[in-house]
Every structure is written in C-alpha cells, then in structure tokens.
Amino acid sequence: MTKKQDIRFIQGNVAMVEGAIAAGARFYAGYPITPSSEVAEASSIRLPQEDGLYVQMEDEIASIAAIIGASASGKKSYTATSGPGFSLMQENLGVAIMAEVPCVIINVQRSGPSTGLATKPAQGDFLQSRWGTHGDHGIIVLSPSTVQDCFDLMIDAFNYAEKYRTPVIFLADEIVGHIREKVVIREVDENEIINRAQPDCEPEEYKPFNHTENGVAPLAPFGDKYVVRLSGSTHDERGFPCSRPDNADKFIRHYTDKIEKNYKDIVKVRKYNLEDVDITLVAFGGSTRSALEAMNMARKEGKKVGVLQLVTLWPFPEDEVIDALINSKAVIVPEMNLGQMIREVKRLNDFNTVVQGVNRIDSMAITPKEILDKIAEVENESSRIFG
Amino acid sequence: MKSRYEIILSGVGGQGLVVGGTILGEAATMFENLNSTLTTSYGVETRGTFTKSDVIISKDEIFFPEVVEEDFVLALAQVSYDKYAKLINENCILVYDCNSIDPVDHLKARQYGFPITDAAREIGNIATANIISLGLIVKMTGVVSVESVTNVLKEQFSKKPKIYEMNLNAFNKGLEMAEQL
C-alpha cells in the first residue's frame, strides 16, 4: 500500500511541528520567541488535534522543566526557543542529561548576544549547543538546512532522544526556520519510530539507571507500577543520591560515552561532489544553502569545489572532516559567527591543509559571491603550495 | 519563462506581502511542479516599517534563497520604492502603487504605476492590494498560470465564500489592469 503524501509550501518552523508529531511527540511547553514563534503557534493548533497537549509557560526555565516532567511521565516532549531562551534553559538541560530524560529542544538561532537582532539570522550558538550547560556530558545536536530537513530530521531527533535517553538539540537558524519551500509531509511507517525501552522486571527489581554494556536502562513512566527516581544530583543505579567517587566516575563517563561510542549511528553528513575536489566547503544549517550555490557557480567556472554538509553537529563528525582535510588542498568554512565551527576543523588539521573561514555577523546571510571570492583568494594565496 | 525568476514584494508591515508571496509559491510548487522559496525580511515592529519578501521560482533546485538579480519588483510604499528604484537594472520590471508613491524619472528599469490602492477600495477592502498585485504580476510575467493562482485562492478561502469572492475579484482586477497596458 502506498503511503499518503502531502505536498505543502510551509515554513521550516511549521514543518518541525509536523515532524515532531510524526515522531510521536504529544507534549509541547514553551514561551514564544522570534524567530521560533511559529513552532509554538503551529504546536498550539496541531497538538490538540492529535490528542496532544500544548502549554504556554511563564518563561523558558519553566518550559524545559515542563517537558522534562512530561517526558518522564511517558509523553514524547519538545520545546522551541531562540538565543535568550536557550541561555535560560541551560541549567535544566543539565537536569535532562543527568536524569537521562529524552526530549527535543529546538533552538532557531538569531543574532545575539542577549536580545540582539530578534528577527535576524545567526549561527552563534554552535558551541553553546555543545558546552552551554555545565559539567562533562555528551549531547546530540542536529542542524537542518531545508524545510524537508525540518520534517525528516525531527523524526531522527526524537528517535535519538528515545534510543539514548538524552536531550537532543535541534539547532536551526532564522534562515531555515522562516523560509517557505516545498515539503513532503509523508505518513511515517511505525518501524521508523523508536520508543524508549520499557522494563519487564518485577517492580521491586527495577533500577532506572541500571545501564547495560551497550545501551541505556529502560525508563518507566511516572505513575506506573515502577518507582522512578530521577535527580539532578549524582546518583546510583536506583536513582538515590550517591557521593562515592567510583560511582561519580562511572556515571559521568556514561553521559559522554553513550553518545560518543555510538558515533556511527548518530553522525550524519551529506557529501556533494567530494569525489574529485581541490576545495571543500564545510557548512551547516542555513549557510549550507550558500555553500551549495557557490559550489555550483564554481563548478561552472571549472573549479573543483565540493561541499561537506554537517547535519549532525555534535558529536562532531571528525572522521568525515578529517577525510575532507586529507582529500582537499583547502577547506573553507562559511558560518554566521566569528569562527566557531572552524575551531573544530582546525583542531583536526594535522595535514597542513589550508583552512579559512567566511564569516558574517551583521545579520545578513553569507552570499554565494562571498564564498566564491574566498575560493579565488585561497587559490591565489596558495598557488605556490598548489603548484 | 527563464529557468529562475526572482521577485521582490516590498512595502511596509501589514500589507499582506508574505501572504501574496506564499500564494505565488504555493501556485508554483503545488500546481506547477516548480520549485519555489519565500524568505522575508522585517523589523521587530509588527506594522508600518519596511518589509520585503523574496520569491524565487525555478525549474531547478533552489539553494541560496535570496534575490540576487531582480526580475520583478513590486513596491507598495514609498520607502520600498525609494530603496529599489535606482538599484534595479534594465531587465527588471518595477510595478508601484501610484496612489501612494511619487515616482522618479529616468530609471534603468521599466516601471509601471497602477492605482492599486484605489482599486482595492473599489473591491471593498484596502487589504486586497496584495491580491490585486498578484494579478498584475501573473499577467505581466507569466511566472505561474492564472489557473494555478485561482486554485490556491480556492483552497485557501473556499470555506469563507465572501472572502473567497473578494479575493478572486481582486486577483481578476489585477489581471484586467495589466491587460490595459
């Protein structure tokens, strides 16, 4: 039987909501903020139609607290915000990491710091999404570049959250959140959807943090026959506070390892014309669109330019970036910040590859022309090296 | 039609330019199997300050979604006319509302003034200026067909017959005005 498909011309923010619903999400709590407000608006309309619940909270601290609670009660949950709200969410993001509660936090990036330029795009939260909350931890961050991504990748976001019992950051930007373009809203097969494991032991034997070698412990919902103790304090397998050094060591490593050791499952990239390149453009989010346009223009001029799009930002796609550094004479990183992702690229560059950025922080998208100019500049500067 | 057509709808917040752009994009993507993107630029104010929508319609996939070389500019406010009039080149068509805009002479672009505000009043609601403009755009460019836009209007408004009729009248009015060129 062919599945139903619905072709629509909608904003990225609205497609995110359809993706969340398709993934099984039925609870949203948030505080509307530009440029993410359409996520709240669409959620308020769509969730009640799907027997879900939308709650407008008093602020972003309460919003993330509410989705952690709702998820612990068994509903797949999400919130959406932008810079100032994302900053407010950092403490409770740590709670979700520590208590290992699945949830999805959408951050539609805008120009900052602080209130900044509320209606304008930026990509300045790249590092905050990795290290914004305190303490050692792993985190999964996904970044869409099209409205179709906003739908499809949102399903992945919830699947990862459920599979690894972790908050997932959906790091969009104003360009992708607000652009309208064609999207196929497809009926998702239930085999595509991952739901968190449930315990089948006797209630007195249940330990919510009794992780196995290769996976996370089943998470029973609050209010069921199992007692579930969730805490932001360092705890043992049962969820009781525990200050033993060996216990702290074990669990803090676990928060990183459960993400990093599943690198191959989590890391997604897209490769465009990378078989034969002199210059690779490494990009994410809305800037990918500028990079792809620049690549096509450069190819028309006979230049061997390719694009490596990082769809997963964290864990950082090190293997794929290393391949790009080895296989290219130069790597150019266009990003709407003063050079956050390029730090990661340079950290991996043991190959003397030329690495340069194209950066904009004036609230305007990077134009393909700017990337083309940088390509020409790198070619000129490096003609001695390139031969 | 060119393989990529770039349109700017400009004016001030509250004139329905995003709605107008969305209707064009829906006509292209949902009824003509073309690609389209719509991006908007606006300030933190809800109404009254400069705003624009970039509509791109293309046979090919669209990556960079901002207008680089305008094929058509609609100006519904003096502030937006002043911003674009002198920038655009001879291949661009500039359409402006002559009820609210004082034009300048000797532009590179071909410019056409239409009494869009008066026509909207005649239709019965000044908020239909955006839909009248759609009629002008469709007739003057052929970027999408009349039928595709009519289909979108029907899908969007058919549950509200009076509003549907008003918008259809507005669209037809725009087509007629362009016909008289």
TrEMBL record, chain A:
Residues 278-371 form the Pyruvate:ferredoxin oxidoreductase core domain. This is 2-oxoacid:acceptor oxidoreductase subunit alpha. It holds the Pfam family PFOR_II. SUPFAM superfamilies: Thiamin diphosphate-binding fold (THDP-binding), TK C-terminal domain-like. The keyword Oxidoreductase applies. GO terms for molecular function: oxidoreductase activity. Keywords: Oxidoreductase. Residues 18-243 form the Pyruvate flavodoxin/ferredoxin oxidoreductase pyrimidine binding domain. GO terms for biological process: response to oxidative stress. It comes from Sedimentibacter hydroxybenzoicus DSM 7310. It comes from the Bacteria.
UniProtKB/TrEMBL annotation, chain B:
Keywords: Oxidoreductase. The keyword Oxidoreductase applies. It holds the Pfam family POR. One of its GO terms (molecular function) is oxidoreductase activity, acting on the aldehyde or oxo group of donors. Residues 13-176 form the Pyruvate/ketoisovalerate oxidoreductase catalytic domain. This is 2-oxoacid:acceptor oxidoreductase family protein. It comes from Sedimentibacter hydroxybenzoicus DSM 7310.
